[in-house]
Design goal:
heterotrimer, A mainly beta (167), B alpha/beta (388), C alpha/beta (383), A: 167 residues, mainly beta, six-stranded antiparallel sheet, B: 388 residues, alpha/beta, Peroxisomal Thiolase, Chain A, domain 1, nine-stranded mixed sheet, 15 helices, 19% strand, globular
């Protein structure tokens, strides 16, 4: 076998700052206005009202959240919306010191998957935990939603500020 | 079996680096020309081209299939690009397989390229847009979250410690010290180094994670009658499998990758493998994070659930162990240009089965190996079983 | 082909300028349910593999394939996405079936173009980032340059391009799926404001939302499922160069290569005589003419005159875009090619209603990925 040469020129930060290599920059102008549709549209409206809702599958009988117009396991349309509690259980969590663009955070965020009470077992949503010390968070911990005041709610997932431990 | 047996007959790759001077197209060309050279073919001998590349947001080019096509040797040829996030590199081999196994094409050039460094200020920025546009993105999520959430679920379910898992990072970064294209090979790294590295998103620390990388890998695939003319050492595609689970990832049990098991079962069935632990001699599971290697070894049915860490501690997955795992150095050591990293795993099995892996060669002349990749929202498994 | 492949089910969500009532998932679900009912299958039990077609920047989501399986009934099954045109997705499905390992494969593509607020910017993002993008021209200028070169090389009159628009948007009046039906004159088209001369606004297909799902099966399965399978006789796809500086500007070589591959597979030697009608990319009006020539359906320079004589009209000797094409139905982004194929299937099944062609037995669909690409795909179908 012929001796293999692995090509590729590796650059350092200085190559750019000192102008040894030239480059072109571009900031994309990519804006979207996504149609929320029927199921998520209703979910957002109920968030604005300070309520969490799920959907019911007539075939497997499960209550699913976030809402969808079909049960992906049974492939049948759901037969209605179901009110849920705004409490739940931490399924898993992380203590994150990095912002989405890799900037280091002084106070870590605590994202968690939270199984919502009133939905079928394992039906979680992604949200943040608050009013808790990072070292006190546990899998299985019971939590409750902390809502923004009604006048500040806009119909978005951020209408819930975070979930906090139930005393 | 497929009506047309399909072989890999050549492979090539660029060096994996943090920031390459080459453009995406040039990286693709480097790898593609190396792969052709390795089996003494020219572009004229190639019937079709398959491109593997992860999100457009990295290279910063919309419809990047089209932009990359020249560099991948696609001029005047049928070109197709498939996509399943991080699973793309192995998917591209599955696609190469169905191109040839369909009987339509005799030779296919498969090129996987990623230039993550083009995305500024940090490629992680591109990852916020993988989350659900309405129910998740507003929370400001980053990619580390999903790994951290999954890793925590996995550790808790099976009572694993950070130390158990750090062994994987140490093994792979040490293995990579023998790979001439590797970015993060380190023969002296220790478990303490991993455990003392910066906490990014607990339980994920800096050295649990594979790096941002630029690079490209290519392979040449051929139908049996052509493969035998090209080389006396064809490596056969014995089985392929892929599987995508629901996008509602917060509704799933994150402690076990069922989709990897489903993909593996599909590939094993096609390959006639009934006892994977005996019949697979070498494995390159996807290891963008150290715990993922363990997670995937279990999903591939190579170890019992929760037992892969113990096997790692016992040295079973070392290069000279009973089941060498990531002898290349994996993504943790060689680097992680997303789709190219996964195709690198397939190339590694190709070189290992041909006895051409140099300082990385595992002992005992392995006859059958498996490469696997993973991607999306902890959602997809792609599997290829190769044999000689 | 070694193994027969047929389309046994079709479904759609109608093409409309805006679809504020449905999310993309709900739109895909609507099309999928229709296709599965049409094929008489249960996706959770019967489908071996799912192929979706999507581009991240058209969706506004990176790694968009994450969000595809549920609404197709494909969760925890083999699924992958093709970043190409719908007909590339069809090709991926056909190849899988030909391996003998897959009997039923589903193909999906959709458009939520109305949700993209900055489409010209997105399209500009497809140009070479170093050489071309800094020049900051609207990508439609590439079509303008190409059109001028095509007209100059072939002597095609502007009126012929305008007639394509009149014909296609007129045909769309007979198509309930179409979003942009209109009764126009040649003067209306040529008199509309210039976009990139000689291209005027009415010669550019306007976007629409919509979704298309197909169910494909191998010969034996197809015959068991339906008594009217539509057979895929040949399929081909090809790329010319992406580099603006070195491409042939007058001719559509990608269309020639793609169609030659499809004809070879289908055993077609004289396409004009053997094919009864075609659905051909017309996302810019001149493209229909340029493509008809590259596809070997007429000689270079002939398509314009042919169109002016009415030969490509619904009642002509070789109807082209009876559906209304992209000009009439709307430009459906990555789904545009599947919309072309959908019309061919409906015509071959005799389900095209008031625009039904008499005695159609073999049809051709051809798609192009649009500026700035040189990527095309062709498929020959028969009943």
């Amino acid at each position: 076998m012929k001796e293999f040469v692995y090509n590729c020129v590796s650059l350092s930060e200085e190559d750019f700052t000192q102008g040894r290599v030239l480059f072109e920059t571009w900031k994309p102008v990519a804006r979207y206005a996504w149609d929320a549709g029927i199921a998520i549209g209703r979910y957002l409206r109920e968030l604005k009202n300070g309520r969490l809702i799920g959907v019911h599958c007539p075939n497997c009988g499960r209550v699913l959240v976030p809402p969808r117009m079909f049960c992906q396991d049974c492939f049948v349309p759901i037969d209605g919306f179901v009110p849920l509690q705004d409490t739940g259980t931490v399924v898993t969590f992380s203590i994150c010191y990095i912002r989405w663009d890799m900037v280091r955070l002084e106070h870590p965020l605590i994202p968690a998957v939270i199984a919502i009470d009133g939905a079928s077992p394992g039906m979680g949503i992604l949200h943040l935990l608050g009013e808790v010390k990072p070292e006190d968070v546990r899998i299985g911990m019971r939590v409750r939603a902390v809502w923004k005041p009604a006048e500040e709610r806009v119909g978005a997932i951020t209408d819930i500020r975070y979930f906090k431990p139930i005393e | 079996m497929a009506r047309n047996r399909v072989a890999i007959v050549g492979a090539g790759m660029t060096k994996f680096v943090r920031r390459a001077q080459e453009t995406s197209k040039e990286l693709a060309w480097e790898a593609a020309s190396k792969a052709l050279e390795s089996c003494e073919l020219t572009l004229d001998d190639i019937d079709a081209v398959v491109i593997g590349s992860a999100p457009e947001a990295f290279d910063g080019v919309h419809m990047k299939t089209e932009y990359l096509s020249d560099g991948c040797g696609g001029w005047g040829k049928p070109v197709i690009r498939g996509f399943v996030g991080g699973g793309t590199g192995v998917l591209s081999v599955i696609q190469g397989w169905y191109h040839v196994a369909s009987g339509i094409f005799d030779t296919v050039l498969v090129v996987a390229e990623e230039k993550m460094s083009a995305c500024q200020p940090h490629p992680q920025g591109a990852f916020i847009t993988i989350f659900d546009n309405i129910t998740e993105r507003a929370l400001g999520p980053n990619l580390l979250w999903i790994f951290a959430l999954e890793m925590n679920a996995y550790m808790t379910r099976y009572g694993l410690s950070k130390r158990d898992i750090a062994l994987v990072s140490v093994k792979n970064k040490r293995n990579a010290a023998d790979h001439p294209a590797a970015m993060l090979g380190d023969p002296n790294i220790t478990v303490e180094d991993v455990l003392n590295s910066e906490v990014l998103a607990w339980p994920v620390q800096r050295l649990d994670v594979s790096p941002v990388t630029d690079g490209a890998v290519a392979i040449v695939m051929a139908a049996e009658h052509v493969a035998r003319r090209i080389t006396n050492k064809p490596v056969w595609v014995e089985g392929i499998g892929w599987n995508l689970d629901t996008a509602y990832w917060t509704n799933r049990d994150l402690s076990y990758p069922t989709y990897v098991e489903e993909a593996a079962r599909m590939a094993y069935k096609m390959a006639g493998i009934t006892e994977p632990r005996k019949q697979i001699h070498i494995a390159e599971p996807y290891d963008p994070f150290d715990y993922k290697e363990l997670h995937h070894l279990e999903g591939l049915l190579l170890f019992d659930k929760g037992k892969a860490a113990e096997a790692t501690a016992l040295g079973i997955t070392q290069r000279d162990g009973d089941l060498p795992v990531c002898p290349s150095g994996g993504l943790l050591g060689v680097g992680n240009p997303i789709s190219a990293a996964a195709l690198m795993k397939v190339a590694e099995i190709f070189w290992q089965l041909r006895g051409e892996a140099g300082a990385r060669q595992v002992p005992g002349q392995p006859k059958r190996g498996i490469a696997q990749a993973w991607g999306d929202l902890m959602q997809v498994g792609t599997v290829v079983v190769l044999g000689v | 082909m070694i193994r027969e492949v047929a389309i046994v089910g079709v479904g759609w969500s109608p093409f409309r300028s805006i679809t504020p009532d449905l999310s993309y998932k709900e739109m895909m679900y609507e099309a999928a349910v229709r296709a599965y009912e049409d094929a008489g299958i249960d996706p959770r039990r019967d489908v071996d593999s799912f192929v979706t077609v999507a581009e991240d920047f058209n969706e506004g989501t990176s790694i968009f394939d994450e969000y595809t399986p549920d609404q197709l009934g494909g969760a925890l099954r083999p699924n992958h996405t093709i970043t190409g045109d719908g007909i590339h997705g069809l090709a991926a499905a056909v190849m899988q079936i030909l391996t003998g390992h897959f009997n039923i494969v589903v193909v999906e593509a959709h458009s939520k173009a109305s949700n993209i607020l900055t489409h010209p910017h997105i399209l500009a993002y497809a140009m070479d980032p170093v050489y071309n993008r800094p020049l900051a021209f609207h990508p439609y200028a590439i079509a303008g340059m190409e059109m001028r070169r095509y007209l100059a090389e072939t002597g095609t009159p502007l009126e012929a391009c305008a007639q394509v628009v009149v014909k296609n948007r007129g045909n769309a009046r007979l198509n309930p799926l179409a979003a942009h039906a209109a009764d126009l004159s040649v003067e209306d088209v040529l008199g509309s404001e210039p976009i990139a001369e000689p291209l005027t606004r009415l010669q550019c297909a306007e976007h629409a939302d919509g979704a298309v799902v197909f169910v494909l099966a191998d010969g034996a399965t197809a015959r068991a499922l339906t008594d009217r399978p539509i057979w895929i006789r040949g399929i081909g796809w090809a790329n010319d160069t992406h580099t603006l500086e070195s491409r042939p500007w007058g001719e559509a070589s990608y269309a020639y290569w793609a169609s030659q591959m499809a004809y070879r597979m289908a055993g077609i030697k004289s396409p004009r005589n053997e094919i009864d009608f075609a659905e051909v990319d017309d996302t810019f009006a001149y493209k229909e003419l340029q493509h008809l020539e590259a596809l070997g359906l007429c000689r270079p320079g002939e398509a314009g005159w042919w169109t002016l004589e009415g030969a490509t009209a619904l009642t002509g000797e070789f109807p082209v875009n009876p559906s209304g094409g992209a000009l009439g139905e709307g430009h459906l982004l990555d789904c545009t090619g599947l919309a072309r194929v959908l019309e061919v299937v409906l015509q071959l099944r005799g389900e095209a209603g008031p625009r039904q062609l008499e005695g159609a037995e073999i049809g051709l669909a051809f798609s192009w990925r649009g500026v700035p690409t040189t990527s095309g795909a062709a498929v020959v179908l028969s009943n």
